[in-house]
Design a protein that fits this description.
single chain; 3-stranded antiparallel β-sheet
Length: 125
């Protein structure tokens, strides 16, 4: 049996995430962050999901995604309606899920060549 390591067409891969940390490529992150297939923005000043303000999504929206994945920690939660509306008004989808599910979803969408951006809220913030 031949084993071949496939390298993705994109720069950043999420190898795992929970409510306290995430592994992006080979780097462990302990503070909230934003990731796209080609960019990593560390130390994202994100509030807990229930208080996430529309302006806190500006850094994600600046990357011109078609969809934003919000990793909400160990438990799924949703941002306030005004925050979701800010994305929808720009024609950008917004999905909120646990950090583990968000990591898997990000990797699938990135591998399909989609314009995906993910913001991960970690509990150390």
């Amino acid at each position: 049996m031949d084993l071949v390591q496939e390298r993705p067409d994109y720069e950043y891969v999420l190898r795992g995430a929970d409510g306290r940390s995430a592994l992006v490529n080979d780097r462990r992150l302990l503070a909230s962050f934003i990731v796209s297939p080609t960019r990593l923005i560390e130390d994202w000043a994100a509030s807990p999901i229930a208080g996430l303000e529309p302006a806190q999504l500006d850094a994600l929206l600046a990357l011109e995604p078609e969809v934003i994945i919000l990793g909400t920690g160990d438990a799924q939660a949703f941002p306030p309606p005004r925050t979701m509306a800010a994305c929808l008004a720009r024609g950008v989808g917004l999905e909120a899920m646990t950090n583990g599910a968000a990591a898997r979803t990000f990797n699938v969408l990135a591998s399909e060549g989609r314009r995906v951006v993910a913001g991960f809220i970690l509990s150390g913030d």
